[in-house]
Specification:
Blueprint lengths: L1 H12 L9 H13 L3 H32 L4 H14 L2 H12 L3 H25 L3 H10 L3 H39 L4 H10 L3 H29 L4
C-alpha cells in the first residue's frame, strides 16, 4: 500500500492536477465528504439510496423466487421470461428510461438500482430454495397444517444464509452502479458531485469521490453485512 501511494505521488509530480492529482490533495478532499457541510449531505443521500435499493431488491427478488417455488406453474414465467429480461437489460438503458419516465428524483435513482440488483437477488435466493432440507420441511408440516407457521419458523431460517448472501452481493453491486444512476437521474448525491467535478475538470474531487465510496462500502460491510453473516453462519 505504501509503495502504491509513493508511486502515485511520483507519477502525480510529472502530471498536471487535472489529469492525476497527488494523494495528499485527494486525501484532504476525501475528508470533505465526511466533514464538510453540503458534501456530507450528498454522501448520506447516496448511502440511504443504496441501502433502500438493496432492501427493496432483496425483497422483490425473494418474492419472485418464492412464486415458482410455491406455484410450480409459474416457473416458466419467472425463470424463462422475467429473469432473462432483467439479467440482459443494459444498465444504461434503465438509467435513461428512468430519467424519461420519472425525471431527476430520488425515485428515479432507486428505480434504476432496484432494476439492476433484483436479478442478482432472484438468482441467489432461488438457488437457496433448491437447497432447502425437504425432510425438515416435511417434518414441520407433520406437526401443523398451518403453512404460514411452517414458512416463518422453518423455511425462512433455512433460507436466511442465502438471503444474507444476496444482500452482500446486492450491496457490493449497488455501490458500483450508484454513480451511474445518480449521474443521469439526480441532483444530489456523490454521483452528482462527480458530475459537477467532471464539468469543472476537477480530478481531485473525482478521485476523492471514488475513495469516499470505498470507505462507505467497507464501513457498511463491516458494521452490517458481516454481523448478519456471522448471525446466520454465512460462509
Amino acid at each position: 500500500m505504501i509503495l502504491a501511494i509513493f508511486g502515485w505521488w511520483l507519477a502525480a509530480r510529472q502530471m498536471p492536477d487535472f489529469i492525476l492529482p497527488g494523494p495528499l490533495a485527494v486525501a484532504e478532499r476525501v475528508l470533505d465528504f465526511f466533514i464538510l457541510s453540503g458534501i456530507v449531505d450528498d454522501s448520506l443521500i447516496s448511502t440511504v439510496r443504496v441501502a433502500a435499493s438493496v432492501v427493496i431488491a432483496v425483497t422483490l427478488g425473494g418474492v419472485l423466487a418464492l412464486v415458482p417455488w410455491r406455484w410450480p406453474w409459474a416457473e416458466a414465467i419467472v425463470h424463462e421470461r422475467i429473469k432473462p429480461f432483467l439479467n440482459s437489460f443494459p444498465s444504461i438503458g434503465w438509467a435513461i428510461l428512468a430519467v424519461i419516465w420519472f425525471g431527476t428524483s430520488d425515485f428515479s435513482v432507486i428505480f434504476v438500482q432496484v432494476a439492476i440488483l433484483t436479478p442478482f437477488c432472484l438468482v441467489n435466493i432461488s438457488e437457496g430454495l433448491k437447497e432447502l432440507d425437504v425432510e425438515l420441511l416435511e417434518m414441520g408440516r407433520s406437526f401443523t397444517r398451518n403453512r404460514l407457521k411452517v414458512f416463518v419458523r422453518i423455511t425462512i431460517p433455512l433460507l436466511m444464509p442465502y438471503v444474507v448472501a444476496a444482500l452482500r452481493i446486492a450491496y457490493g453491486v449497488g455501490w458500483k452502479i450508484a454513480l451511474v444512476s445518480e449521474l443521469f437521474g439526480a441532483e444530489s448525491g456523490i454521483g452528482y458531485q462527480m458530475l459537477r467535478a467532471l464539468t469543472a475538470a476537477d480530478a481531485v474531487t473525482l478521485f476523492a469521490a471514488c475513495f469516499a465510496i470505498v470507505l462507505i462500502f467497507v464501513a457498511g460491510e463491516k458494521l452490517v453485512i458481516d454481523p448478519l453473516s456471522r448471525r446466520f453462519q454465512v460462509r
